[in-house]
Amino acid sequence: MAEENRPTVAVIGTGTIAVGWITLFLAYELPVRVISRRPDAGPEVLAGVAAFAPGLANGVPRREGLTEGLDVGTDLEKALEGADVVQENAPDDLSIKQELFARIGAAAAPGALLLSSTSKLLPADFTALMGDRGRALVGHPFNPPHVVPLVEVVGGPETDPAAIEQALAFYRSVGRTPVLIREPVPMFVANRLQAALLRECVHLVREGVVTVAELDEVVTTSIGLRWATTGPFRSFHLAGGRGGLRHWLGSLGTGLERSWQQLGSPALDDGTVRAILDQADAAFGDRTYEELADERDRRQNAVLRALAEVSREESGR
Fold first, then answer.
1. Does residue 298 fall inside a structural domain?
2. Are residues 106 and 16 in the same domain?
3. Domain identity same for 96 and 173
4. Which in 64, 151, 199, 279 has the greatest CB count within 10 A?
5. Strand pairing category for 9-12 and 32-35
6. Distance between CA atoms of 46 and 31, rounded to whole angstroms?
7. What does the alpha-carbon distance between residue 89 and residue 87 come to, in Å, rounded to a whole number?
C-alpha cells in the first residue's frame, strides 16, 4: 500500500461515473491517477470534480483543495505502475473490456485490486484474455458514486477470496456500503430491482393510470420513503405485526403470487416511448441536467445525514 496506508488509485475513464469515483477518492485524500484516451481531458476532469464536490457527504476528510494528488494522463501502463487499486469505467462493450483488462493485468502491480464499474458484464467474461484473473472483480456503484453509498462487489469463478475481502475493505475505507453479490447474476441486484419496478411504472403510465409526474410522487412519498429506512423484507416483517414476516406470508401474503400475475408487461413501442417522453418533458423538462442533479444530490445527502443522526442517537442509548 502507499504511504500512510493510503492506496494509490488509478481511475480509467472520464465519464460521469469515473468523475464521481475521482471526486470521492480525492475527498478521502487518496492519490488518484486518471487515464483518458484524450490528451485534453485534464480541464474536463477538473471541472467535473468542482461540479461534483458540493454533493459530497459531510464528514469526508477533505472538501477543499480536492485536486491535490490528482494526475491526469493518457499512458495506461505508466499510470498503473505501482497503483494499489484500479477502478475501470470503460463502456460496457465486452471486446473493449477484454482487451483493456488484458492490458491492465499485464501492467498492474502484483496484488493490485482490479475493479470494474460495469453494470452488466461478469468477471468471467471481461477477464477472458487475462493471465491472472484472481484479483479482478466488479465494483459496481449506484450513480452517483460520490453520493450513493452502495457498491455491488461481484467475483468470478477464479477470483481470489482474499481479493474480494480487500475490495470490501477498500470501499468501506472510502465511506461506501459494499455488498457482496454471492452469485454473478446478470445486472446484479440493485438494477434488477430497479428494472422490475420500472417495468410496472411504464405499464401504469402507458395505461393512463397515472402520469409520469404522479408516478414519481407516489414513489417518493410512499415506498421510496419507506425503503430509505427499512428494506422490502423488513417492511413486510413489520406489516405482519407482532407475528412478523412469518405471519404476513402465512396470511396477508397468501395472494402474493396472484398479484404478481396482475402486473404489466408493457411494450416499449414508439407510442409508449413518445407518451413517456412528452410527460417527462412536461414534468421536469424546464430544468437543466445540472439543476436536477444538484437537487437530487442535496436531497439524498439530507436523507443520509438524517439517518446518520438517528444511528448516532440509537448507539448512544
1. no
2. yes
3. yes
4. 151
5. parallel
6. 15
7. 7
Question: Cα 200 vs. chain centroid, distance in angstroms?
Answer: 22
Q: Contact 21/52 with Cβ under 8 angstroms? A: no
**pTM > 0.90:** yes
Residue 277: strand, helix, or coil: helix
Domain housing 254: 190-286
Gap between the Cα atoms of 99 and 296, Å rounded: 36
Amino acid letter, 139: G
Amino acid at 267: A
Structural domain tally of the chain? Answer: 2
8 Å CB contact between 43 and 121: no
